[in-house]
């Protein structure tokens, strides 16, 4: 029964997806027929479905003929995600505007063309602003106080960037911007809380992005953990080896004592849990830190902010997360806000200071509406209680 329910759910989702795509295509067809008499329906619908399904086509092609063609289709398909989402929001309003004009005895072509022109202006404005938000990162500053002794350290300055999503869309140039911006902060340590790559490790290897990441400069080095996208790609071991070659340890349920002053705790991503068996492929936080000296500060890297309560109950002092992108494109943030206790920003829970980043890179389209690409600049002051 469970299998049939799953098949039914997948079929329903696919049906809705295809139906919405057709709705967008139909609106485009109506607009073109009002615009010109030489409109070719067959050519239009062929081009439309290639564009609408280009991301899926690219993922299939890259397994057979990797190269410029699937990469180009992935670019098109990534931007189409944004066009798709905002068209689903805008086109019903445009159709209502056409209906209102037709009710006022405006000709069909005039109503369609005027509503379509407004739709295109708004859509282009959204994409332009969203692109600017995605490619112009901001530095978010946080200052927290941990009431513990940290060796001889009075303060620790952390530069962090989650969700780089390095791959076909986010590549060498934008990674160099990250390295430059982080080095300007002169951090004590650089932390990467997951989703360093965007599914496939091939672009990371082909573009030798590890060599770029060697450019991070800090007193105590650069450390990363896995995100769900490293698991989705299926080659996390190769990714870990490439990161190690770049001098960046990837902590997989591991802990490190840094400068005899604090502990860095790197947790496996929640994706390590088997969907089929329900068994967890990662350690509970309490078990992970059981042998540590809890009189020293404990800093946790855990990609998904799904265990903030567990971190607080386990005695973690500072936890860093990503994953949510703050929805990346509004109004998606309304969904992430409901899913996670904290989907972006800062939360003080007990003695835990939890910080969730909206991420540096993007998944799908390099478009951000209602969110910004960001780098975290975190200053931890160590002030033991008297």
UniProtKB/TrEMBL annotation:
PANTHER family given in the database record: TRANSMEMBRANE PROTEIN WITH METALLOPHOSPHOESTERASE DOMAIN (PTHR31302:SF0), TRANSMEMBRANE PROTEIN WITH METALLOPHOSPHOESTERASE DOMAIN-RELATED (PTHR31302)
Transmembrane annotation, as ranges: 7-26, 38-58, 79-99, 111-132
Gene3D superfamilies: 3.60.21.10
Top-level division of the source organism's lineage: Bacteria
Pfam families: Metallophos (PF00149)
Keywords noted in UniProt: Membrane, Transmembrane, Transmembrane helix
Domain Calcineurin-like phosphoesterase: 156-326
CDD domains the record matches: MPP_YkuE_C
The protein's name in its UniProt record: Metallophosphoesterase
